[in-house]
Design goal:
4 domains, 4-stranded antiparallel β-sheet, 6 strands, signal, DUF1549 domain-containing protein
Length: 598
Amino acid sequence: MTVSRPLILPLLAALAACQPTHVFEPDQLASGPGAMVGNGAPLTPGDFPGGDDVLPAARQVTPPNEARPPDCDAGCVAYCAGAGLSNPVNRGLCRSLWGVGLASRPISFSEACRRLFVDMLGRVPDAAEAEATCAGGWGATVKRLMESDEFILVQQRHAADRFLYANQVASLQSIYDMDRLVAKLHRGLVPYDLFASVVSAHPVFTRRYADPGDKAEALFRQFLGRPPFEHERADMARLYRLWYSGYYDHPQLGMRLPDAFVRFRCLDKDGKVNDAARGECASVLWGYNELTFTPDLRAARDPSLDNELTLWSGLLTAEEWARLQIPGRILARDLSFWERAVDDVLVQYLGYDLSALVPEVRGALVRFLLENHGDIRSVHYAVATSVAYLQSAEGAAASTYRWAYGPLKQVDAEVWIDSLARQTGYELPGCDHRISQPESLLNAGSIAGYRVLAESRWKTNDKGNVDKRYSELARTLGGCPENVVGGRFRVVSILTTATQLSFVQSLCNPTLDPKIKGADVARLLPEGVSSSLAVNEEVGERIATHQYRLLLGRSPDATEVAEAREAGRECAITRCSAEEFARPYCFALLSSAERIFY
């Protein structure tokens, strides 16, 4: 007899609610080396300087020849030294901007606040929220945003893209542990060098690459920004020879999870270190670093390795994890490691590599990061409050130097979808970056698997299947990646444009199609305006102002107000209602480039 999934899920939900707490808790799923670090007080109080620099005027000199990098003479050096700048990005940028006669571009409140919300909270604010949040100076605003849970989620999603979380490749326990480690990093509980050390031996990292040399190369690319030279790759690969990709049967989830195991290399037949072979398990380029393990009662035989003894990584002690993290500690000694750390943050916020164009910025940020004990929050704060970030990107720039005008980027798919749904009140399921293949939890048929799925951002539909309305839309636009082969992408194409227009049409329903549910019209109308009210110039202006503030996070300018009044006048001729005016207006605003680029 077969039982349909819609009947099974309510039963699983009822059984899950009755389970004693000591059996299995989804919030305790995380297991790995991330639990062993960052359990004390924050590295710094989080009160970083430089958030509200008074920007100097451009020095009165002939602007540089933009065919080559600007040349900062002695007068320029003296001008920047006396500018009183405390933000490291501003200090590093001065000799290529104000000191050589170039002016920075002022930015409007709405443009700056919107940019901060998108980059730090992962969504576009409405005007009321922007006005309430972005108050008291940009330093206080950025600090406030960094203390929010949404900021942590955005950074966790970045890490998922960076390390390609996929529960087909790595254990869910390890992915949840890595996610927790990233949260600790961005709460200032773990210094960046310790974070890199833990990652270098984390099952999410080691399980993705089968060959020891590939592991070494991936580590170099992640934390030094370059591939290793052949002798570096060969030497560090010896420290990764111990890792083996196997499988672990989770007793509560009822699933066979891909996980990392340790092999006992460079031993003799008695299980002791073989003096003649121990060099095969040692790195010598950065000092002598030997890495060997001997079997004990925790070891088990693996049939896929001709019954060779292996040790499941879930049984490793804190001291053993620390030994396995030698590769990360080696790289953290290099100056280029810290340079790569600040470069990653610069690219995240600016969308381009400012360090390659103005190396003084990189040097100033590295010093700032080390002065703050490796607290990566200091770099986020410095970049997000800098003139390089808080400059306007609108209109024509007076200079062709990239740092002389603000960043302009395309929003991620999740940002675009989440913002539209939030502002229109449209209910959608979600996509959880920790679980790229949610069906595996349902297919396991266990109460624990159902509970993990139920407490994630994924949802199930009426048929008991994973609701993929959100993920299918996001994946068409390059988001919510499965990370098995490829990852996130951003593109502007006919397909993505058509997909976006189709979704906006389903939200706004500009044709008033009765078959389309769409957003509640009350969300699209200002208070006191009913859907049946006849539209005139004044009503058109009120509706337009409401939607600009709700959907674009700003008030309309004079030209936009005039356009709205003209549209209201035309609408009055045909005696259209407020709903007939509001829904097409919603479509026009949400399909604009301002919703896609920021």
